[in-house]
């Protein structure tokens, strides 16, 4: 199936959030509790895998969006994960949603955790993919190879292969398949996050890993049901942090995907989608039994 036209054919809407125009798209049914998607470092809403979005949208109302200063949204990148989470809450309020489910990937997972702590009544269920609780006691920190690969100038295929997908035959194939679904001639230039915005995000991430506004000491206060997933060898947000989160979150379920890394949710988008949909359905039916 050709997924490359999904974003091109879905209009971008905007809503005012604290004086900034914030861009978003919606997919799937018009009713039901929305699943709001929180994006990664240097990613706009057009960097979600359209295959994943299309699969989830068969059953769920989805909202993908760009936080301020990113992609199609105006304003400036917020200076901390906490401020980004406050903007996320204001965005959800601006759309008049009383309660939402949240899916956070990578940095989007950082924002999701903090949002759940700031506004627990707003958040029903949580999916955390390729993410962690920041720095602190028990955390496993990224290695020096991350600094090498996130610097400008490296071919994107090589970056994704090194940081998102294990450098195996299967990993290389997953890298190419993801890139083919994302980077095509209909992708608008504005979908690419600027270097300035990326640097601002990076500063917030560094603060998070230094323990600044990390959620690690507060995970026990996140009471919502949480599905925690990752690849078995994530080098960007090391997989041991996934286990750490699942142990500390009081209502967590954990899934680790084989032969995969940071981008496991895209490498195995069909399996990941099935897990997300089943998790949400089971919570609506009363939870684990």
From TrEMBL:
Q: What range(s) does the AB hydrolase-1 domain occupy?
A: 41-266
Organism, per UniProt?
Bradyrhizobium erythrophlei
- Name of protein: Pimeloyl-ACP methyl ester carboxylesterase
User: Per UniProt, what is one Pfam family of this protein?
Assistant: Abhydrolase_1
């Amino acid at each position: 199936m050709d997924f490359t036209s999904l974003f091109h054919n879905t209009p971008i809407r905007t809503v005012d959030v604290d004086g900034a125009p914030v861009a978003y798209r919606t997919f799937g049914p018009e009713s039901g509790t929305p699943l709001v998607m929180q994006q990664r470092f240097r990613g706009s809403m057009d960097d979600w895998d359209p295959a994943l979005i299309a699969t989830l949208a068969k059953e769920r109302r989805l909202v993908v969006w760009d936080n301020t200063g990113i992609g199609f949204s105006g304003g400036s990148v917020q200076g901390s994960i906490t401020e980004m989470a406050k903007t996320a809450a204001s965005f959800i309020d601006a759309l008049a949603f009383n309660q939402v489910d949240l899916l956070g990937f990578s940095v989007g997972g950082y924002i999701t955790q903090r949002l759940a702590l700031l506004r627990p009544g707003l958040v029903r269920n949580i999916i955390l993919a390729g993410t962690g609780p920041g720095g602190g006691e028990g955390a496993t920190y990224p290695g020096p190879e991350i600094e090498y690969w996130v610097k400008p100038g490296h071919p994107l295929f090589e970056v994704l292969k090194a940081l998102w997908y294990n450098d195996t035959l299967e990993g290389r194939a997953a890298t190419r398949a993801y890139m083919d679904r994302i980077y095509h001639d209909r992708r608008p230039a504005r979908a690419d996050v600027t270097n300035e915005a990326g640097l601002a995000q990076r500063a917030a991430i560094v603060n998070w890993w230094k323990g600044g506004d990390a959620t690690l000491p507060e995970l026990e206060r996140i009471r919502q049901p949480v599905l925690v997933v990752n690849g078995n060898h994530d080098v960007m947000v090391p997989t041991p942090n996934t286990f750490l989160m699942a142990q500390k979150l009081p209502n967590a379920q954990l899934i680790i995907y084989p032969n995969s890394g940071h981008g496991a949710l895209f490498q195995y988008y069909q399996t990941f989608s099935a897990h997300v949909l089943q998790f949400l359905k089971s919570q609506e039916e009363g939870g684990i039994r």
